[in-house]
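Appendix C reproduces, verbatim, an entry submitted by the partner laboratory led by Prof. M.T., so that reviewers can inspect both the input and the predicted structure.
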Amino acid sequence: MSTRTSSTTVVVGTGPLMISDVVAVARDDAKIILSEEAWAEVRRTRALVEALADDPVPHYGISTGFGALATRHIPLERRTELQRSLVRSHAAGSGPEVEREVVRALALLRISTLATGRTGVREETLRTYVAMINAGITPVVHEHGSLGCSGDLAPLAHCALALMGEGVVRDAGGERVPTAEALAAAGIEPVVLAEKEGLALINGTDGMLGMLVLAIADLRRLLRTADVTAAMSVEGLLGSDAVFADDLQALRPHPGQRASAANLRAVMAGSAIRESHRADPTGSSACTRVQDAYSLRCAPQVAGGARDTVDHAERVALAELAAAVDNPVVTPDGRVESNGNFHGAPVAYVLDFLAIVVADLASMAERRTDRFLDPARSAGLPPFLADDPGVDSGLMIAQYTQAAIVSDLKRLAAPASVDSIPSSAMQEDHVSMGWSAARKLRRAVDGLTRVLAIELMTAARGLELRTPLQPSPASAAAIGVLREAGIAGPGPDRWLAPDLETAVRVLADGSVLAAVEAVTGALA
């Protein structure tokens, strides 16, 4: 695996991070730079923490144990051991490795909180964290281990363990190696944690937030793409675009619905297929199809509701990106105070909301695909869009695959945030399960991508079977991407699985959307 490089940078400490910042570090290997103001605040608040080290009054995380053991006073000579033991014991993840982009996102978000000065870490600890991520070293984090309160403890503890030179990481080339070896190769000295630092490194919502941010970025693209595939399906099934008129959408002023309808109109514009079934060939909006099925006619209502839900999720994400999550926290006026800001409920809720709308959007797309394959509902197309029905099965089993994914998405839509399992001897008696909500949303986003790819392939074949009538220029551009990628048009059966994966790739990487927008202009 080759080393990834990037010339872009993200500056931390000049204001809240933006979604694009997180994506740049997580996916494009942007370098992290801290502002001088951030370094100054880190030094100032560290001095406050060190002043409390000898205070006979116990201070949580500085001179006490943790969680249910917070009543135990820890003598000064054992506090380095306290921090080390905290990280080692909390690095208790299990299961498959979490994706590199997720680990990089959560590391950036923890660095951002540490840079606020509200956590009291030392400058040298923070510099080591930044150096490790900038060197392309990715701590190995596991699928299971976080309850989403007190934040994502186990995932963040695996990252903190790497700062100590322990555990295993992926180096810049993607090889799994002992951490000490990777740090040495990068010229990075491991840290010996001091008072408060172990807790500061592991107490945050950074994992679930990182996955939320990445999902929002993906869904912004997928929602526009879903409008493209829906428009192609309406067009190919001889549906009407009259119902997408802006004055009709304005009667129900949800912004997402209106934007989605505008996209559908833009993609269908100039379609000879659409023109072929107008009641008045001179251009009246009337259509020989009085009312289309809901999966066609109501596409903007469903996709629009999904858009509005993503907008809400982004508002939550931006608030969280502006937060400094730790416990205890060093306030700007110098107090060290316990708090509950590590609870992941606000993030967990929107992660679950998004899984619901992803499932519903995919469910509607699957219904449009099924209509194409049923000669009783496809307005004259051959059964299963097969070349020689009976000898050929066409796209019959592609729809099975799509239906199986949709069924999975419905199960993934069951909310994680309504569950809570008490932990830490009932000290932590209510948890958010936000990490679990985030993990299932990642699977859901992948599932939606695959469902839309199958709708795209199906609509493309259906449109081409309307020859000699021609699709809209935008639909033709989308079809062109599939054909240029090696997916053949209508014809005898062929091995379908590689074509499905190719369709997933060109949809996920934005190629289809870019081709369409080259015709329509930027979609909403």
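Residues 206-236 form the longest helix (31 residues). Additional entries are available on request from the coordinating office.
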